[in-house]
Design goal:
- The protein has seven helices and 14 strands.
- The protein is of the alpha+beta class.
- The protein has three domains: about 100 residues, Orthogonal Bundle (Multidrug-efflux Transporter Regulator, Chain: A, Domain 2), CATH 1.10.1660; about 80 residues, 2,3-Dihydroxybiphenyl 1,2-Dioxygenase, domain 1; about 55 residues, Signal recognition particle alu RNA binding heterodimer, srp9/1 (2-Layer Sandwich).
- The strands form four sheets. It has a four-stranded mixed beta sheet. Strands 11-14-13-12 form a four-stranded mixed beta sheet, covered by helices on one side.
- The longest helix has about 35 residues.
- It is elongated.
Length: about 270
């Protein structure tokens, strides 16, 4: 919704004020603009800034780029006035900036319907997730440098991580299971062909999900957890398919086993005390 009533020939402003209006100051003020159609209350920029959580300087910038023009600008002084109804638009802009959408895209989004807006936001979320995965990888690399230093011995090859790839029938359904049910984080997704999910600050646990239409045999992997029994209780409350409850194994693990929608088995374990 865009509002702009700058027709000074049809507008008569009756103003009672106690300070310069286009400033940071806010106090008791009554402003009314009378047009040929109706009478509307207007707020000075300071009061509008408080109501929306957007600074005065930012509101001026939004006016300059045409994103959020005031409802009226006093011709003699250049003071800006806003309608209370513009708070909704301003709050929407602030929310979209809060998720790092650029101003030029926000200007376009304000004119979209709900379905189109959700499509754009889903696309933006994928980009954020890809960025999060990149940041997680860089944090891991930084931690490695902290622990091992900058010296690299090319003759000392060390393996630090393995990432299993699970074939799945439906990538989006698998992502929902791992993220919404098991508590993983989506690292990135490429349409319905591929996705990466991970757990941990530096993605210590990472699983790739790749769509496959032909028959496949379910895979399995072991994932270390601090407290298998507590996690078992949490997962049973979420209706996760438990294949085997917690038990002590002869090879020195306490573990339980769950299955994802494609039958892949995850063994959640910790080492038994000696």
């Amino acid at each position: 919704m865009r509002l702009d009533t700058r027709d000074s020939d049809q507008t008569n402003v009756r103003l009672q004020r106690l300070w310069p209006l286009d400033s940071q100051a806010v106090g008791e003020i009554r402003i009314k603009v009378v047009t040929r159609e109706k009478s509307q209350e207007l707020w000075p920029i300071g009061r509008f800034a408080l109501a929306t959580g957007i600074s005065v300087s930012t509101l001026r910038h939004y006016d300059e780029i045409g994103l959020l023009p005031p409802a009226h600008v006093e011709p003699a002084t250049g003071y800006r006035y806003y309608q209370p109804s513009q708070v909704t638009v301003a709050s929407t802009i602030r929310l979209l900036r809060g998720i790092d959408l650029p101003l030029e895209r926000i200007s376009h989004l304000l004119d979209l319907g709900d379905d189109a807006l959700r499509t754009v936001l889903r696309s933006h979320r994928e980009r954020l997730a890809e960025g999060a995965s990149t940041i997680a990888r860089r944090i891991g690399q930084t931690d490695k440098l902290i622990l091992e230093g900058l010296f690299v011995d090319n003759n000392d090859i060390a393996f630090h991580k393995i990432i299993p790839t699970f074939p799945v029938r439906d990538v989006s359904s698998s992502v929902r299971f791992y993220v919404d049910t098991l508590g993983f984080t989506l690292g990135g997704q490429t349409g319905e062909e591929f996705a990466s999910v991970f757990q941990g600050l530096v993605a210590e646990v990472n699983i790739y999900l790749r769509r496959r239409t032909e028959h496949f045999t379910p895979a399995e992997c072991f994932i270390f957890v601090e407290d298998p029994d507590a996690l078992y209780a949490e997962y049973t409350g979420r209706q996760v398919h438990v294949v085997e409850p917690p038990r002590d194994e002869e090879w020195g693990y306490r573990q339980f086993t769950i299955a994802d929608p494609d039958g892949h088995r995850l063994h959640l374990f910790r080492f038994l005390e000696d």
